[in-house]
Amino acid sequence: MTERIFVALDVDGRERAVEVVRAIAPVLPHFKVGMELFYRCGPDIVGILKAAGAKGIFLDLKLHDIPNTVARATAVLAEIGVDWMTLHASGGRRMMEAAREQAEKRAAALGRPRPKLLAVTHLTSTDSKMLVDELGSAEPLDRAVIRLAVLARDSGMDGVVVSAQEVSAVRRVWGPDGVIVVPGIRPAFYRAEGDDQRRTATPAEALKQGADYLVVGRPILRSPDLRAAAEALAAECEGGDLPVSPSEGSP
Q1: Beta 159-161 vs 179-182: how paired, if at all?
Q2: 156, pLDDT greater than 90
Q3: Is the C-alpha dihedral spanning 53, 56, 62, 64 positive or negative?
Q4: Structure confidence at residue 206 (pLDDT)
Q5: CA neighbor of 81 nearest in space, from 110, 118, 38, 102
Q6: CATH number of the 2-238 domain
Q7: Which of 71, 125, 160, 249 is the most exposed place for a label (fewest CB within 10 A)?
Q8: What residues are labeled active site?
Q9: Following DSSP, what letter does each residue of the chain receive, concatenated?
């Protein structure tokens, strides 16, 4: 079960990132690198984290631009050894197809597996009111997520990033093979204050809905004891009668 958790390294520098990885990799070995850490440290951070004990790296830059730009960026990122990466499904079919094509070409030229491509549907900070009032959409949020998930599936993506509320519906349209990653995970031991995540869930809720992987950041990073928090999260995920993911062990 611990192979199904990505710890979000939402920290401001290499030293803290390495500290976190060394503390919890024996318990939770997979990590997500977001914009803050990547832009601070550059692509070398991937090798640094793997040397510190990380087994898998999920690069979460949420690429979104014209197809040619995203395709070229994806090819570059395929060189640095990441196992997963994200792009916005709202970039459209041509963008996603071009990204996959270039990732495959560059990985094949290097003789290594292609990074798995995950399409972000709507961020977990988005709710229905924001979708209408700020983004000008009359489409219900759950329907918008499903539409983008289907587009991602048909564009050759390996999976999608959705909130726990949409997992079961997305699973129905993707079937058993598509990978579903759920951020905004809040374990029972965590008491959020000033949280900007609006569509959250406990690990058990997300996994029972059919999530393959979970992304957890603040509940661990804000703990005074990183290892203890990681162990508590692992224990919570192991508890109960949870389904076995069809993609377990694939990062």
Answers
A1: parallel
A2: yes
A3: positive
A4: 85
A5: 110
A6: 3.20.20.70
A7: 249
A8: 62
A9: -GGGEEEE---SSHHHHHHHHHHHTTT--EEEE-HHHHHHH-THHHHHHHHHT-SEEEEEEEE-S-HHHHHHHHHHHTTTT-SEEEEEGGG-HHHHHHHHHHHHHHHHHHTSPPPEEEEE-S-TT--HHHHHHTT---S-HHHHHHHHHHHHHHTT-SEEE--GGGHHHHHHHH-SSSEEEE--B--TT---SS----S-B-HHHHHHHT-SEEEE-HHHHTSS-HHHHHHHHHHHHHSS-PPPPTTTT--
Confidence (pLDDT) at 249: 38
d(CA 189, CA 64): 35
pTM: 0.86
The answer to whether residue 241 scores a pLDDT higher than 90 is no
